[in-house]
Predict the 3D structure of the following.
Amino acid sequence: MEFKYIIYEKSEGIATITLNRPEALNAFNKEVVDEVLHALEDVKSDGNVRVIVLTGAGEKAFSAGADIKAMKGMNALKARELSLMGEKLCNAVENLEKPVIAAINGYALGGGLEVVMACDIRIASENARMGQTEINIGLIPGWGGTQRLTRLIGKTKAKELVFTGKMIDAKTAEQLGLVNMVVPADKFRENVRQFAAELASKAPVALKVAKALINKGADMSLDAAISLEREGFGVVASTEDLQEGVSAFMEKRKPMFKGK
Ligand code: CO8
């Protein structure tokens, strides 16, 4: 597929998907969502890809959310369609069996923040600004924001952000536990690359099972989730990569994991 609204690159086990509609601050329309979903399908079937970085083109925005201009005259059916579209995207990111890093290079607002929250790791540039700003245009988050935000930072702060629609800076987002780390703007791409490379060097099956356990287990009873962990542990323990990890430890060398 020819991509028009994203840049899709793969190198050294890292696939980078760059939202590329800077004239609209990388706002999501149907075409952007379709292209990201296509790239995620490719990532799924490419055994060489170990980790995905999702980011925005330009210095200004990761994404300013769903395309507001496409909402003019929107009826209930169209709104439902738009909501489903974002839900599909967020679920595809969350359920992908490889880690996804959100590299937040600027604004992540509305649907932009909702996509960020579906990622596994969030790295923000110091000049990033985040918010569930939908209330300012008379809307609510419709791509899982009320739920994922609450699960990430708790009801108290989630209500404050959703009710006021205010933007917060990267440091505040880090203090709230919304992002993993904040890095200087001039070292942003380099730091994201280093973090991605670190994840790409880990055992893929272990990463895949750990991601599924943390995501699924968070919505289960502790007892059921721990049982699930036991089963997952059994699967990971049966991989060739575990034997490689043990051998590498004993031979005092770096392990070379193959995802088997
Ligand atoms: N959609 C479409 N175009 C956008 C969007 C957007 N979300 N955000 C910015 N743009 C466009 C602007 O219209 C402008 O284009 P033009 O030059 O043609 O007028 C261009 O991008 C640059 O933007 P600004 O001139 O506004 O840049 P500023 O630096 O002055 O301001 C802001 C930057 C503060 C980020 C400002 O653009 C802004 O507030 N944007 C809107 C952010 C927002 O509210 N996002 C939430 C959207 S709603 C949503 O995501 C809901 C998801 C769930 C949907 C469920 C469906 C029912």
In short: The longest strand covers residues 6-11. The beta strands are 6-11, 14-19, 51-56, 61-63, 100-104, 107-109, 121-125, 129-131, 168-169, 181-183.
